[in-house]
Amino acid sequence: MTKVHYDIVGSFLRPQELKQARTDFAAGKISHDQLTQIENKCIKELVAKEAQHGLKIVTDGEFRRSYWHLDTFWGFAGIDHVKSEHGYFFHGEETRNDSARLSGRISFSGDHPDLRSFKYLKSLTEGTNLTPRQSIPAPSQLFLELYRGSANQDAVKKYYSDTAALIADIAQAYHDLILALYEAGARDVKLDDCTWGLLADDDVWAHAGDSSDFAFSRDEYKDLFLQLNNAAIKDLPSDLRLSTHVCRGNYHSTYADSGSYDSVAKWLLAQENVDAFYLEYDDARSGNFEPLQEVPADKDVVLGLITSKRPQLEGKEEVKHRIKEASEYVDLPHLSLSTQCGFASTEEGNILTEAEEWAKIQLVETIANEVWTPAIENKD
Length: 380
Prior knowledge:
41% of the residues lie in helices and 15% in strands. It is of the alpha/beta class.
């Protein structure tokens, strides 16, 4: 089977029909069953569009989620949906103030919203050549959230006497969720992860002492996150493709962090036991490609060179030039192209239209076909 060198990160702009349904449900105007029916309809229409636009790996657009990460956390036993004093701070904006806080020991109960969501997505791809992908936030992201603010930290101390026990429970809960997804037919699971982008930002850590969000040092977090993520994905079936997407924040077309991969490459790129890295490279904030030399020769890198934050289309030749630059560190057969992130990491979505969203995806496919098809033919 020929390898496809274009990809997506996963989230899509929510249709107006879905936005209205969520508003109506929150106001008590429709039942949960009615909301689910509308979600199903919109997801079915999205998967059909993904197929029509030539995508081979499809998602449900994260249409059932409010956030790319918190909804997954709230689905574990021992975690409550709470409101914090502040939301997340992005460049020029602050998000809603939801958070996840411990209310007991963490575990996977056997029933989880991501598992239910995947089963419906899988049903839409039966009998086709489409691969359904389930994206979930990385275990390290949950660890970071549980220490965000003094109230969250107090809850950790209440239920866990040491960090090792917390890491073990998070890893086990994630391992159990991923195995349940596998048993439901998932063969492609992606871990979305903003923690490495945070660790790469020198400005954040220059002022870390002034924040109550950090319970450990920068280097301690690197070791903790690597240990936790690898523990969660240890001893999984060999035919399950595991990847991770490193994000710098993606909210309403704004960003949270900046910084080259240099400071995290020897942990993330060299040692995290995934099959592929989806890396943001849509502007100068991500630095150059030199850190890619840390990627093992048998792993793939998906270059996020096309931004999902702005509607303007990138120039094809410039993107091709950057792919060539990256191929100095990772062999071209192990490279692919995608947008740098999804289009709606939260239900607010980025500032562009659905037509502009699909134009971005079409650009990714066009460039990928022009770069890799000749390379494959020449090799043959």
